[in-house]
Amino acid sequence: MGYNDKFRLNYNKIRRTLTKFFALNPFGHCGTMETEVKLRKRNKERILQLKHLKAILLTLGLFLAAMLPVSAVSVDLDGQLFEDCLLVEDTTYVALRSFGELAAGTTATWDAASKSAFLSGNSLSLTAVEGGSYMIANGRYLYSERTPLISDGKLYVPLRPLAKALGGEVSWNGDTEQAVYRSTGSIIEPGSSYYDADELYWLSRIISAESRGEPLIGQIAVGNVVLNRVRSEEFPNTIYSVIFDRKYGVQFTPVANQSIYMEPTESSMIAAKIVLDGYSISEDILYFLDKSLATSFWIVENRTHAFKIGCHDFYT
Predict the structure, then answer these.
(1) Which of 47, 56, 112, 289 is most buried, most CB within 10 Å of its CB?
(2) Is the pTM of this model over 0.85?
């Protein structure tokens, strides 16, 4: 792997860190409608500090590029040795085009303008974008903390979400220090039949009403809270009944102010599909609130704080 490729990987890692930093440390007060101009005036000094931080981190990326833990690795692909792989920290990446051809007989095309790769064939339609946080496979949204990257002119993607799309199973062989992929002969089920229409309808609406304007990861976390409640014995066992639960009073403000019935945003639809496809930031979070808008602090006083994303604090 060349120096430029390593720098690209390191830059993407730094960019993700910065994205999380800005999401976890928003300017101004959450929940307000201040314009960017007013916000910048009031936070001029802090903005300059953050710009300096970004410059320092990007410079550090240059210095660390050669030391980025990226190495060659191989995959046992149905008994064959597949070597067009990368190991980025603890994640195995595979070259999308060649792996798709061998594992499922797909063909690949590339759109340079959008930096997107498309796999098709064998009942599969898949889109992967360099730096994108999810792949779309037959209308299913497969999220990954590790994003697709380009190295030596090829797009590499994390093995596990790709395996899910191809209908394969992945395990790790500790003796050979090698990922093992086994085909099942069944490509991922289309989203049109996989996602329950009623669940998607209500989950996307509560995510949209509660976290409109939040980063995608924050919207996913809100969806996780709802599904965690569905699985918990403390709450009702369907998405609809969790949202409209009134056992201890109204659980979600959008139910009280009727914003639950507003058309969901596109990003909330994506977040809902990601959550329904099994991605979870935490299986323990059951509550969240925006402290700047809250009228009751029972959650703060009685539950354990887990983390903060954007305007929302999440609790177990």
Answers:
(1) 289
(2) no
Q: Which residues contact 126 (CB under 8 A, 6 or more apart)?
A: 100, 106, 118, 119, 120, 135, 136, 137, 138, 165
Co-location of 126 and 177 in the same domain: yes
**pLDDT digit string, tens, across residues 109-142:** 999 999 999 999 999 999 999 999 999 999 999 9
Domain boundary among 42, 67, 92: 67
Query: Does the structure show a pLDDT above 90 at 218?
Result: yes
Q: Please state the domain count of the chain.
A: 3
Query: Which residues span the domain enclosing 37?
Result: 3-67
Determine the Cα–Cα distance for residues 74 and 306; give it in Å rounded to an integer.
Answer: 37
Contact between 218 and 310 under an 8 Å Cβ cutoff? The reply is yes
Question: Sheet of 178-183: strands edge to edge?
Answer: 80-82, 75-77, 178-183, 168-173
Domain CATH code at residue 181 = 3.30.457.10
CA distance 226 to 260: 14
Question: Regarding beta strands 91-95 and 80-82, do their DSSP bridges make them parallel or antiparallel, or are they unpaired?
Answer: unpaired
Secondary structure letter of residue 113 according to DSSP: T
Count other Cβ atoms within 10 Å, centred on residue 293.
12
